[in-house]
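From the pipeline queue, job 12 of 40. The input is one protein chain; the requested action is below.

Action: predict structure.
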Amino acid sequence: MIHIVRYWLPLVLWMAAIFYGSSRKSLPGPLSWSPIEGFIAGKAMHVLEYAGLFVLLHRALLARRPRGSPAASPAEREDIPPWRASTLIQALAISFLFALSDELHQSFVPRRDAQLLDVGWDMLGAASGLVAILLGKLLHRLTPGRLLPPAKPSSREGTVIHA
């Protein structure tokens, strides 16, 4: 149960927030925005929403384990890579399907319309989330003490030479 709350509940709440925003007839914002400012803010929202969606999806998918299997021990967790290409691809595919369903949903909302170009903005956000994860993993590997593998003791260490 804690596993579901920790990894899947944030994802479901994020998706619900996106769905709720799509069901609004108009999005809140300053009345003094020019059309260009409104356009930029709207597209920035698409990118941020789906970057967050991708990161939460990736996190939840990584946390999966087969039903009934015991949790991995800390020693086993060290052997599991912090990311898998298949998990990244799955998160991208689910983000794409959710973006399509979001646009389909908007087609039924009064004064809103579905635009396939918005799916492109959504996928730009998902790709941004992917880049953020990969950069985070790279920076984690480059932290002091992790840059170089541990030095192997030489055969000369520990020997005392008497003159």
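Job complete. Confidence is low (pLDDT under 50) at residues 73-80.
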